[in-house]
Amino acid sequence: AADEALFLLLHNEMVAGLYRAAEQGEGENGRCTTKLESMGFRVGQGLIERFTKDTARFKDELDIMKFICKDFWTTVFKKQIDNLRTNHQGIYVLQDNKFRLLTQMSVGKQYLEHAPKYLAFTCGLIRGGLSNLGIKSIVTAEVSSMPACK
């Protein structure tokens, strides 16, 4: 649990540090989200290499998404994705009802606007992992009630 606490603290500090720099005129807020997503992308690429070095090749895209929802998510966030849906046309919706990077924030509506900051790194993480598995993707996040996200 110590490594989880360190990850949460590091993630919070990355978000806070980038936005603090933006407020001091070193860039605008949109660039912060892009930077966090890029950092996540590189980490996701590295993690997926480590996690899949001993696994058999995946049969198809759905097989890869199941791996992301179970093994990848469990290793990074200590739980599986709660729900995986697909339209069978390349769109997948992953739902985490108690997302670790949002649970330390208040459940109140006043923090809803800050949620995207705390999801950018994870969007990059997923995109980087998928990229190294040969899938080009666009990963977006949506929060309608804290701490759940899609």
From TrEMBL:
BP-aspect Gene Ontology terms: endoplasmic reticulum to Golgi vesicle-mediated transport; nervous system development
UniProt keywords, alphabetically: Endoplasmic reticulum, Golgi apparatus, Neurogenesis
Name assigned to this protein: Trafficking protein particle complex subunit 6B
Pfam families tied to this protein: TRAPP
InterPro entries tied to this protein: NO_sig/Golgi_transp_ligand-bd, TRAPP_component, TRAPPC6/Trs33
Sequence similarity: Belongs to the TRAPP small subunits family. BET3 subfamily.
Function: Component of a transport protein particle (TRAPP) complex that may function in specific stages of inter-organelle traffic. Specifically involved in the early development of neural circuitry, likely by controlling the frequency and amplitude of intracellular calcium transients implicated in the regulation of neuron differentiation and survival.
GO cellular component, one term: trans-Golgi network
Lineage of source species: Eukaryota, Metazoa, Chordata, Craniata, Vertebrata
Signal peptide: none
Domain of life the protein comes from: Eukaryota
Main subcellular location of this protein, as a coarse class: endoplasmic reticulum
CDD domains listed in its UniProt record: TRAPPC6A_Trs33
Subcellular location: Endoplasmic reticulum; Golgi apparatus, cis-Golgi network
